[in-house]
Amino acid sequence: MARKTRKPGRTLGVFFLALAIAYGLVAVGASWKPELGLDLQGGTRITLVAEGSPSRDALNEAKSIIDQRVNGSGVTEAEVTTQGNNLIVVEIPGKNRADLVETVQRTAQLRFRLVACTESAACGAAAASTTTPTAPTAPGVAPRAPVGFGKADTTPSPTATPTGAGTPTDTATDGTTPSTSPTATGTAKPDTKSSSFDAAVDFMNNPPADWAQKFNDYTCPTNAAPIDDDPAQPLVSCSPEGEKYLMSPAIIEGRDITDASYGIPQNDVQYAVMLDFNGHGRSIFADATGTIAGTGQLFAIVMDGQVISAATASSRIATGAQITGNFTQEQAKSLSTSLKFGSLPVKFKKDTSSEVVGPTLAGDQLSAGLWAGAFGLILVMIYCLLYYRGLGIVVLSSLSFAAAWTYALVLLLSKTAGFTLTLPGIAGLIIAVGITADSFIIFFERIRDEMREGKSMRVAVETGWVRAKRTRIAASFVSLLSAAILYIFATGVVKGFGFALGLSTLIDLAVLFWFTKPLVSWFARFRFFNGGGKLSGLSPETLGTDMPVAVGGKA
Amino acid sequence: MGKFSRLGNELYNGRRSIDFVHKRPLWYSISGGIVLAALLVVIFNGFNFGVEFTGGTEVRVSGLTSSQATQSTADDLRQAIVDAGIPGAEEPTVNTSGDSGMSIQTEDLTQANDQRLVDVITSVVDVADPAKQISPSDIGASWGRQVAQRAIVGVCVFLVLVMFFIGLYFREWKMSVAAFAALFHDIVITMGVYSLSGFSVTPSAVTGLLAILGFSLYDTVVVFDKVRENTHNLRESRTTYAAAANLAVNQTLARSINTGIVALIPIGAILYVSAVQLGASSLKDLALSQFVGMAAGVFSSVWVAPRILVHLKSNESDVKMAEKREKARARAEADRYASVPTFREDMPVVETPRELDLDDLDDDQVELEVEHAERRRASDTTATRLGQGRVAPPARGPVRESGASGRQQPTRQPRSQRGKKP
């Protein structure tokens, strides 16, 4: 007999301690009521109105991108639908989620442009001569090319009813569909790439006089209105601080970004958004940084027409880029999510409506479902008590503790990961009752089988456990795998279901290993259970054998 | 309970056994027939896809007083629409929107039915100006093609991974194949029953079906684990693969029945309440697909998967050999003294070992010959030792576990040694 299995008390103690800690955390940080999903509690409905009349495909693409944005991180199970010809409706669980409007409607068209003129480097002169503008202060360059300036508001809030005749609006006719417009970097063909890039460099060094004029006439707007941003055209725009820039046509576009993440870089204190490019974007970025290295010239990162970052480079950078600024964690997360899942092919009107919607499932349905589930559970418990008698107590207590763990973890996860409990989620948990109970059934049937071979209960518990454990782990692995795949690939309610299933499988394993097994080992010391009495559930009669159960001294 | 327990014991030690692996033509045709019927139902009856898949109509009611835009009014309205039985609006989704609005989602409605729906709405809530306050609009599918594609990719990845896992864990790809055949059986039956029920397909129903993927394989793994344990060493256990597998299924039968009961009771309760008592509810979609799928899963893990496994294994040489050994044993058991030669006058005292001509014999005979040769050799040595003391009888097979659990067993001492300290 393995020595460690002889100390069931200690394992039980640790188990109860962990449970107490979990509930302690709940008491400190979370509420006692789990966050319910859209169907059970209602939520916030955000209605986005598209500008113009986008094609159905574009609207559907926008829908799926928004879907990924709101469901991409976590298990909130928002629902996104198109409505009519120009509406996208986003429903998010929770009453006060209007803060998500930003994330949802940001078109997130990110472009890298070369800066021809800034206010500090007057460009009238640069336009006349071909000399490289001696350019302004620029932040130091780290391996990842941090580019930054003071405050970069992630919202495309500023911008402009354009003032003056020379605004870029007149040039941008198809700026909303970058995929079709002949952009500077649009194609991967090397010749066009280099020629458009060369054109951009040329523009940076010799901005044409008419653009220089526009730049000089331009004043940064103070009120919020979107700027039309045509990647094939130069752009005059401002940073949130009100510094204006004249920039070349776009050299890198948002779709060249393969991944975006956020975090606090080493040796830094502020959040930054890290970008990774595909091969095309990386080579262009390397060329661009190579061209401006040492000259003091700038490149700018433009988001939805607004300059969010401008910097120079001291050397050729062949890795990804990094956007720094005064980001809060929320802002950095929102920006990286928007960049990661791509830009929207559709622009939306500024005035989005958000309203609170009620649950789609009638109140009586939820309570009826819960009552039915509870009733079913009671039947299961009665059945277990009848069939396993004394051991039925083990089933009851194990199921109760599994339920307690599930409740605690659901509370904690709705606080930390935004997990919301929907109807399928609850159903997943109820189905898990069957799987959880199955783990005890496998174990008990093994014990009974071992005892039928003439072993005493104490021995049978240990030998039965060895075999039941193997079966259990293999079977749970299949369950976990299915839960994980559902979680990774599915969206919406199925995701929540997968999450609930995986959670309950893990809890089941934990309860089986750290509660049920030690409890049965401990019970096996008592005469009531190992004596083969009628109520123990392990009497010769219930085993169906004729020989007496092995008991006593060394048994 | 007592009888059931006794049955459990007899199933365990093999005294009573239900045949789960033979009669393949019969049970294959029954299972295959059910699956085929389900497939036909799916093909010809089809599914009634819900709003989430096909899109539909959303009717917004605005400008209600705040006393009317409440959850209870929404519930009343839902019930009223269900009771009206408008085609396409049998299962409406009704919820409050904002402080003064209500939105109703149904499948696509015809013009006339649109009007009927508006009539129902005005009969439940006070609407001063229906033309202004009630505005229908088309809504798209929230579960469009992309969601479906992702789900299909997910399912494929899952199936491939599980196939590899089962193959690796059991070191037996045929177990994966059998498990997948059982899975296919379960899924098709579930879909067939769902199609027959006429419930509309909602994300809940799809969720239920996806959960069946996991559960069916899970249940099969549990049964196969026991099969693997029993068939681990066929030679040593002196049995055939089919018999060992059948014993395994019989031994797990009590567990399968218990698990089936325990898993189905709660879902059955939910199904009853949601389908019979509540009527329109997305709960019943989930409960139905789960209930049918789980029942089919438990059934197929006992009735379908082992049979297919044994069928697949029946061509393996190891299994065939075990089969032949079993036959030979049965023959030997039928007439134990068949190999004893009848006495003739000129019989040699010691039989000269015959040269075995291996090429002439098939496997069966080789096996028998080898066994006979061994027995002869054993009897030879016995004969030479006769009269030289006690002779241990020849071992009939490899030594098996004694069931003594490693405890020291009492030994019988000679009378002269009894009661003395060693």
UniProtKB/TrEMBL annotation, chain A:
GO terms for biological process: intracellular protein transmembrane transport; protein targeting; protein transport by the Sec complex. Its main location: membrane. GO terms for cellular component: plasma membrane. It is found in: Cell membrane. Residues 128-188 have a biased composition (Low complexity). The chain crosses the membrane at residues 12-32, 368-386, 393-413, 425-444, 473-490, 496-515. Residues 241-346 form the SecDF P1 head subdomain domain. SUPFAM superfamilies: Multidrug efflux transporter AcrB transmembrane domain. It is a multi-pass membrane protein. Keywords: Cell membrane, Membrane, Protein transport, Translocation, Transmembrane, Transmembrane helix, Transport. Residues 350-523 form the Protein export membrane protein SecD/SecF C-terminal domain. Residues 60-116 form the Protein translocase subunit SecDF P1 domain. Pfam families: SecD_1st, SecD_SecF_C, SecDF_P1_head. One of its GO terms (molecular function) is protein-transporting ATPase activity. Residues 128-194 are annotated as: Disordered. InterPro entries: SecD, SecD/SecF_arch_bac, SecD_1st, SecD_SecF_C, SecD_SecF_C_bact, SecDF_P1_head. Forms a complex with SecF. Part of the essential Sec protein translocation apparatus which comprises SecA, SecYEG and auxiliary proteins SecDF. Other proteins may also be involved. Part of the Sec protein translocase complex. Interacts with the SecYEG preprotein conducting channel. SecDF uses the proton motive force (PMF) to complete protein translocation after the ATP-dependent function of SecA. Belongs to the SecD/SecF family. SecD subfamily. This is Protein translocase subunit SecD. It comes from Nocardioides terrae. The gene is secD.
UniProtKB/TrEMBL annotation, chain B:
Residues 405-414 have a biased composition (Low complexity). Residues 346-422 are annotated as: Disordered. Its main location: membrane. It is a multi-pass membrane protein. The keyword Transport applies. Keywords: Cell membrane, Membrane, Protein transport, Translocation, Transmembrane, Transmembrane helix, Transport. Pfam families: Sec_GG, SecD_SecF_C. The chain crosses the membrane at residues 26-47, 151-170, 177-199, 205-224, 261-280, 286-305. Residues 125-313 form the Protein export membrane protein SecD/SecF C-terminal domain. It is found in: Cell membrane. Residues 357-368 have a biased composition (Acidic residues). Forms a complex with SecD. Part of the essential Sec protein translocation apparatus which comprises SecA, SecYEG and auxiliary proteins SecDF. Other proteins may also be involved. Part of the Sec protein translocase complex. Interacts with the SecYEG preprotein conducting channel. SecDF uses the proton motive force (PMF) to complete protein translocation after the ATP-dependent function of SecA. Belongs to the SecD/SecF family. SecF subfamily. This is Protein-export membrane protein SecF. It comes from Nocardioides terrae. The lineage of its organism: Bacteria, Bacillati, Actinomycetota, Actinomycetes, Propionibacteriales. The gene is secF.
